[in-house]
Design a protein that fits this description.
Number of strands: 20
Keywords: ATP-binding, Kinase, Magnesium, Metal-binding, Nucleotide-binding, Pyruvate, Transferase
InterPro entries: ATP_grasp_subdomain_1, PEP_synth, PPDK_AMP/ATP-bd
Largest sheet: 9 strands, mixed
Strand content: 15-25%
Shape: elongated
Strand order of the largest sheet: 14-12-13-15-16-17-18-20-19
Protein name: Phosphoenolpyruvate synthase
Catalytic activity: pyruvate + ATP + H2O = phosphoenolpyruvate + AMP + phosphate + 2 H(+)
GO molecular function: ATP binding; metal ion binding; pyruvate, water dikinase activity
Length: 650
């Protein structure tokens, strides 16, 4: 939605002639358009920060860059309006923009050697071997459990492959468009990423090293198993939904098999899991374990904490059970988790011997004790019936959430520190966020334009100051027949001087008597009005309300466009405040769009009387929000508060 009606009424022709005024007017007009775009970007980032939207972090980076560019343009327009007064403004912008970039930018990962290493050595290279390899290395070094040994292709190979083929920019560009976890969007994103990735070529030096590692692992003529998984940087657990296993790989095909295994990172499920846990693509590289495909007698999985389909005996209900399942059987062995690990049930038809099942279960218990959390392990038995563990990971694996960088991002983008009502704080040097700069530019631009109004303006009588019993203070510009003749020649006016139909209707709600008014919640603003038109900006502490409306006898001209952007309160309180406004306005015919702490409401063509009633309702809403801190603590309370508010209006 655009507030595009103001300049249909406040045209350049309303000012005295002069090139300087034309430049200032054009700068002001552009600044207002840019402010609208900035508010929408800020509210979009808030929406993400409040947990109301799930996007790829690349999208947040793009939004922050777009916001920085638009704020810069906005401040340029303010400088154009008064170069002397705002000459130092860009210094404060550059400082804040630097902090924004620091908050949102995820640095490119290091490309570290070794590119390949023995699986047993992985615990010495925790940053690059991947969590699964590190766990297997610990089992090898800290227990007597048999592990199927092999080699590891470290995450350094993945990072080198991405950089050598200049894929980072292409991948980021694709991920910038991920604005939800909608299955169809993730499917399209996955296909686009895979298309880019598979066309890239492995550098020859890395190819040689991988082939050597593959041949070393395949001694004795074995084929290979590749197990790929994604481990976030500085974490000790793989991402859920981010792993795959490829069997029967020829050593000579190691590069193509590696590429195929790495694609697990780009599946729709993998992207969704990464987004939900708050990681960027750059900090989630892939490591691959290579193991020999030895001849086996059996294979399967082990859950050290199993969720059974049937009730356990009373003595085991507190501690639970573990399960050993063979790939050749339909049902698992169920074991008690108490000290004796008593067998609770067998498969009806079993290919796995009870002895092997007990050995596997005992291995799982030892691994869980070592790692401190329940595990899901893969196992095999060779032709001599020896048990080997091939992988182990936490189960269930819910992943580890990333550091909440969004909290720091909101601090420099959306937190409002300055207020026009606090003149000591309303300075560019006091600005701490992009939103501070946007509000500063908006306030000063309007102030500049109002200061240009003189009695030489066509049909204008200068800007006037309106005061009332309530702590509401407005600077009013009368375009045409917006005030009674009693206001002529006066700089200070009262509500009784208002002739503008929409302004009087709004004032009916805004200026109504109500308890709770004080200097702390006072309202200030600017109003541009005529007999049937009103454009007004109102500020109360950190809240900003804007209304653009026509209230005419001609039904077809009438409309209301109301925008509210908050800046005060916790995330829950701000979401609740938006919910309150929605609950009040939707029943009376407004079309609503909202994101973050921004809501826009539009009422299209309606009768003059109906428009007046809706404007009075908006006036009541603005005043109620100003004196209610907070309006509600959560969305449920907001609904009940809205019901009370509507009942009182009626």
């Amino acid at each position: 939605m655009k507030f595009n009606k103001l300049f249909n009424h406040w045209t350049y022709e309303t000012f005295p002639p002069g090139r300087l005024l034309r430049r200032r007017y054009n700068s002001f007009k552009m600044l207002m358009d840019l402010e609208e775009e900035c508010l929408h970007i800020i509210s979009r980032i808030e929406d993400i920060g409040f947990g109301l939207s799930e996007v790829d972090w690349a999208n947040v980076e793009k939004l922050s860059i777009d916001l920085g560019n638009k704020v810069h343009l906005m401040l340029e327009q303010l400088q154009s309006m008064n170069p002397i007064r705002f000459m130092d403004l860009m210094d404060y912008y550059n400082k804040i923009n630097f902090y924004v970039r620091m908050a949102v930018t995820v640095p490119d990962p290091d490309i570290s050697m070794p590119f390949t290493l023995a699986l047993s050595e992985s615990a010495k290279h925790t940053a690059h071997a991947g969590a699964n390899a590190v766990v297997l290395a610990r089992i090898i070094s800290e227990t007597d459990i048999n592990v199927l040994d092999g080699m590891v292709i470290s995450s350094g190979v993945y990072n080198y492959f991405i950089e050598a083929n200049d894929l980072r920019v292409h991948i980021d560009h694709i991920l910038e468009s991920v604005t939800s976890t909608d299955p169809e969007q993730l499917k399209n994103t996955s296909e686009a990423l895979i298309s880019v990735f598979v066309k890239a070529q492995m550098p020859e030096a890395i190819t040689n090293e991988l082939e050597i590692a593959a041949l070393e692992t395949a001694k004795g003529g074995n084929l290979l198993i590749l197990s790929a998984s994604v481990t976030p940087e500085d974490e000790s657990c793989i991402l859920p939904e981010n792993s795959t296993i490829i069997h029967n790989v020829n050593p000579q095909d190691i590069v193509s098999a590696w590429k195929k295994a790495v694609l697990c990172k780009f599946s729709p499920e993998s992207i969704k899991a990464r987004i939900k846990l708050g990681y960027s693509n750059r900090e989630t590289p892939v490591a691959v374990i290579i193991q020999p495909e030895i001849k086996t007698q059996d294979s399967g999985s082990l859950e050290t904490l199993h969720n059974p389909e049937t009730d356990l005996p009373p003595a085991d209900q507190e501690t639970g059970c573990s399960a050993v399942l063979s790939d050749n059987d339909s049902d698992p062995f169920i074991f008690s988790r108490r000290k004796k690990q008593r067998r609770l049930s067998n498969p009806e038809k079993q290919s796995l011997s009870l002895h092997s099942a007990k050995t596997i279960n005992a291995n799982g218990c030892e691994i869980e004790k070592m790692l401190g959390v329940p595990q899901k392990c893969k196992w095999i038995t060779d032709l001599r019936n020896r048990v080997f563990i091939t992988s182990a990971e936490p189960y269930p694996n819910k992943g580890v959430r990333a550091v909440d960088r969004m909290k720091r991002t909101l601090q420099y983008i959306a937190n409002l520190k300055i207020s026009a009502q606090n003149t000591e704080m309303f300075l560019p040097e006091k600005s701490k966020s992009m939103y501070d700069l946007v509000r500063f530019a908006n306030e000063k631009a309007i102030s500049e334009m109002f200061s240009l109004i003189s009695k030489e303006g066509l049909g204008l009588d200068g800007a006037k100051h309106l005061t009332a019993r309530q702590p509401i203070s407005l600077t009013v510009l009368n375009l045409q027949e917006g005030l009674f003749t009693t206001a002529a020649g006066k700089m200070e006016i009262s509500p009784d001087d208002i002739k503008s139909v929409p302004m009087w209707a709004l004032w009916f709600g805004l200026g109504a008597k109500r308890p709770g008014w004080s200097e702390e919640n006072s309202i200030e603003g600017y109003a541009i009005l005529s007999k049937t038109y009103l454009n007004i900006k109102l500020k109360s502490e950190k809240d900003l309300s804007e209304i653009d409306t026509v209230c005419d006898q001609d039904y077809s001209k009438n409309h209301i466009h109301f925008r509210f952007k908050g800046g005060d309160g916790s995330a829950d309180e701000r979401i609740a405040r938006i919910e309150f406004i929605k609950k009040v306005l939707i029943p009376v015919g407004f079309e609503i769009e909202n994101q973050g702490d921004l809501i826009e409401a539009v009422h299209k063509e309606s009768t003059e009387a109906e428009i007046q009633k809706k404007l009075a309702t908006i006036g009541h809403i603005i005043a109620h929000i100003a004196i209610s801190k907070p309006v509600a603590q959560n969305k449920q309370q907001a609904a009940s508060e809205a019901a009370i508010f509507i009942a009182n209006l009626n």
